[in-house]
Amino acid sequence: MSDPKVTALDLPAADPLPDDIAAYFARCEDKLGMVPWVLRAYAFAPEKLRAFKEMYNDLLLGDSGLSKLEREMIAVVVSAVNRCFYCLVAHGAAVRQLSGDPALGEALALNWRVAPLSPRHHAMLTFAEKTAEASARIVEADRQALRDAGFSDRDIWDIASVAAFFAMSNRLASAVGMQPNPDYHAMAR
After folding, report:
1. What tens digit of pLDDT does each residue of 52-73 get?
2. For residues 176 and 8, is the Cβ–Cβ distance under 8 A?
3. Domains along the sequence of the chain with CATH
4. pLDDT for 19-36, tens place per residue?
5. Contact assessment for residue 184 and residue 166, using Cβ atoms and an 8 Å cutoff
6. Is the pLDDT of residue 3 over 80?
7. Is the CB of residue 85 less than 8 Å from the CB of residue 180?
8. How many whole angstroms separate alpha carbon 144 and alpha carbon 126?
9. Which helix (H) or strand (E) holds 70?
10. pLDDT of residue 185 exceeding 90
11. Residue 171 has pLDDT above 90, yes or no
12. Is residue 15 helix, strand or coil?
């Protein structure tokens, strides 16, 4: 089977894929049942794929006071701000899976303020949204609102880091016409 056209650009994957990348794709296939197309999009340049994978894995899977669900919630809200089709579909599926609540993923993607959120999550997503929209306008009162909601300064760093990463990733995905794996649309519904 040929690789799907995952972006609007003609950037074929390195051939052959370096052993570490081929092994990583095999682990994705085993764990997820697919290789996320964002990884296939980067496969033309293994060094870029490695950098993306390392940053993504650190921010979404690494040690943090934020849960995996909270980090995925940030990804969806930032992706909604940026109207990133790929990330809304992929990370909306992750929110549905992690929360067990299909409606939560939809609410976060369309208008997170209608989602039934705790005050903690409301504060987190307010900050993430502001980071995506106008980070230069963040002031100490914004950080203090997070502290008042129970977040540590390290958590604030992590919220800002996840939001900033997805602001960059969203822009790239949209600019190159990146498509989400079709499998994501039906996940956890």
Report:
1. 999 999 999 999 999 999 999 9
2. yes
3. 19-61 (1.20.5.810), 68-186 (1.20.1290.10)
4. 999 999 999 999 999 999
5. no
6. no
7. yes
8. 12
9. helix 68-82
10. no
11. yes
12. coil
The residue among 130, 124, 132 whose CA lies nearest residue 168 is 132
162, two tokens: 């996840």
Answer whether 139's CB lies under 8 Å from 52's CB.
no
Contact (Cβ atoms closer than 8 angstroms) between residue 173 and residue 80: no
What is the pLDDT at residue 187? 84
Q: Which amino acid is it at 143? A: R
Collect all residues with Cβ–Cβ distance below 8 Å to 68 and sequence separation of at least 6. Answer: 60, 61, 98
Q: Which residue type occupies 114?
A: V
Looking up tokens 């980067």 gives 42
Consecutive H or E run containing 178: none
Contacts made by residues 169-173, CB under 8 angstroms, sequence distance 24+: 169/38, 169/84, 169/87, 170/78, 170/79, 170/82, 170/84, 170/87, 171/82, 171/84, 173/38, 173/41, 173/84, 173/85, 173/86, 173/87
What one-letter code names the amino acid at 11? L
